[in-house]
Amino acid sequence: MPVVGFLGSASPGTYSIRLRAFRKGLKEAGFVEGQNVLVEYRWAERLNNRLPALAAELVQRQVAVIVAGGGTPSALAAKAATGTIPIIFELSPDPVALGLVASINRPGGNMTGVTNLNIETGPKRLELLRRAACSKEYRHPNQPD
Q: Closest by alpha carbon to 14, among 39, 46, 38, 37?
């Protein structure tokens, strides 16, 4: 039975909503925890200095994949622990700038994941919104010049 390692920076209670989504995603992919997949959870309890040792435990356990569920600290700890086990992350900062992946289009290595790049795209979105709001083409007929 495949084993998934889940590396969390907080506690299970803090991740209850994310854990439900994680288990739902596993189920949609045909995996039911305890039936055809095992999940090994490691929780740092908000003590990020524990993450490297917890990631090393998952590597020693020879999990098939590591889910770095604790944002940047978990992703960095998992990356430092292994260059071969696939790692999946979710974070807001740019994973290229953090050194997690080579590029967004072609991450390379053993890491992949999801990022919303708010820091990079937020200002651009505001600029586009400002342009649209100031453009006569997009003005409401009752909006003053």
A: 46
